[in-house]
Amino acid sequence: MSLMGPEVAPKGECSQPLQGEGRAGLFRAISPLMGNALRELRLERGWTHDEAADAMGLSRGQFIKLERGERGLTERTIGLAAKAFSVPPGRVIGEAQSADAPAEAPAADRGAPQSNVAVPHHSDPVDTSIFKGPRNVPVYGTGSGGDGGDFRLNGQIIDHAPRPPGIANRKDVYVVYLVGDSISPAYEDGTPIYVDPHRRPQPRDYVVVELRGEREGEPGPAFVKRLVARGAGKLKLEQHNPSGPLDPIDEGEVVRVHRVIPWLELIGI
Predict the structure, then answer these.
(1) Cis peptide leading into 10, omega within 30 of 0?
(2) Backbone phi and psi for residue 44, each to the nearest 5 degrees, phi listed first
(3) CA 39 → CA 52, 82, 167, 217, distances in Å?
(4) Which region holds residue 84: left if phi is over 0, alpha if psi is between -120 and 50, else beta?
(5) Does residue 250 contact residue 236 with C-beta atoms inside 8 Å?
(6) How far apart are the first and last CA of the chain?
(7) If you ran DSSP here, which 8-state letter would residue 127 be given?
(8) Exposed e or buried b for every residue in 149-159, given b needs 16+ CB within 10 A?
(9) How far apart are CA 223 and CA 146, in angstroms?
(10) Tens-digit pLDDT profile for residues 27-46
């Protein structure tokens, strides 16, 4: 008994076996004992018989006969299947994938977005420069606060701080170093805080509040608190340490209320 199977013609061509020499010699049938993975490949992709047949350029009936082993695979049909299913020819006849070849992704994972997470090696140094901009944000000096405040803004520029990416184009931002622990753990004593003088603070924002000085032209007491409400001529604030609201402040005593820029906003999130 011969183990040679018939050749399958593409759609629209004669489906009779090719006999003799010449053209038939180019499309030798493969022994059915070598295996047939067409069904496995089709199911991996979730294709119907019609979809698989169209991908290979065959009729539905021709593909079903190949898949069932009723017709033997040939070099040509193996090539058509390899191209249609995007696999090496060996996969079509059920050969095990080479250990050196890249593993085929499961069908459920095909088309899934690739991860954009780059995990650095543990020994690689962290490049903190990407979080720093030019050192052009003025740092204002502070003095002893005295009664009614944590510090006094003296109006002098004592340094310049880096400009994080989130405020790359923000005008008139400045930095002060926090004095005291009244809003700890949100901000600790000595922490540099970035302040936006133009964006109106909203309730729950942290704010720098400066009061009027005892004499005209003198800096008044200042502090950093959390805004509760502002209206009806009163400024209502709270702190964390000790926790609780402060006595409302008459707006007539307030020189300025500036918003502290949150850390996530500074880095552009």
Answers:
(1) no
(2) -60, -35
(3) 10, 13, 58, 88
(4) alpha
(5) no
(6) 74
(7) -
(8) bbbbbeeeeee
(9) 11
(10) 444 544 456 889 999 998 89
The answer to whether the CB of 38 falls within 8 A of the CB of 67 is yes
- Give the H or E element holding residue 25: helix 23-26
Distance CA 184, CA 191 (A): 10
Determine if the peptide bond prior to 185 is cis (ω within 30°).
Answer: yes
- Per residue in 76-127, pLDDT (tens digit) is 899 999 999 999 988 888 775 544 445 555 545 555 555 665 666 666 666 6
Structure tokens at 247: 């006595």
- Which residues, in sequence order, are CB contacts of 207 under 8 Å at separation 6+? 201, 224, 225, 226, 227, 237, 257, 258, 259, 260
Question: How far apart, in whole angstroms, are the C-alpha atoms of residue 73 and residue 82?
Answer: 12
CA–CA gap between residue 46 and residue 110 (Å, rounded): 11
Residue 119, helix vs strand vs coil: coil
Dist. CA 180–CA 221, nearest whole Å: 13
Structure tokens at 239: 């702190």
With a threshold of 0.70, does the pTM exceed it?
no
Do the beta carbons of residue 82 and residue 91 sit within 8 Å? yes
